[in-house]
Amino acid sequence: MKIGVLSDIHGNHYALKAVLEEARRCGVEYLFILGDLVGYYYYPDEVLKLLEDWPKEIIQGNHEEMLKMVLSKETEKDRVRKEFGSGINFALEKLSVEWMEKLNDLHAFKSVTKDNLRFDLCHGSPWDRDCYIYPDCNNDILSQCTLSESDFVLMGHTHYPFVSFCNNTTIANSGSVGQPRDRSSAGSWLIIDTMNRSLVFQHTPFDSSSIIEDVKKIDPHLPYLHEVLTGVRKDTV
What we know:
This protein is of the alpha/beta class. It has a single domain, classed as Purple Acid Phosphatase, chain A, domain 2 (4-Layer Sandwich), CATH 3.60.21.10. The protein is 33% helix and 23% strand. The strands form two sheets. The chain has a five-stranded mixed sheet. The chain has a five-stranded mixed sheet with strand order 4-5-6-8-7, with helices on one face. A hairpin with a 4-residue loop joins β9 and β10. α1 packs parallel to α2 and α3 packs across α5. The chain is globular.
């Protein structure tokens, strides 16, 4: 079985559409979605429609947690918009009650077995969805990520892809579909083939011009949100 591992879509349906089209061409049969379907950008409803017909596992990221927080504490809406853009507000406006409940009920960590391989799915790390584990992290941190009997530990959150091997476990960050921070206008994701345990990174180009224009109109106070899509900015927000 070929499994597509996607993370940090962030309401960018333009990027997701291109990634899913490539996934079909590559023979991907199943998806692992590692959180942050919402936040930053403005089309969470379109993202969920595109994923609707795919067999998949989804876990919760820190932006789903943020959405849940704003739902219970509306006074936080303006602070979140100023710091992260209007993506969470658009999720509040566009998503149905049913989808809001589904996102709120997602787990932050999940173990899944496919073809006798154990996959541990997390957003930031196995112990904290908001923990940033970068490609240059030290071996002690990687060792903490390995779990007994895990074949693969899969994560996102940083928007920087990497793969490492520790204690007979493959640890991989798939990067970001919707806001890649490692190269311009290419959604980062990966394919795992359970038949031979291979892992291949994919970088799928997408047309970012429309979403860049959207950001300039909707969140002009956060130029980072469009600059990162052109490779101008590489820091994090």
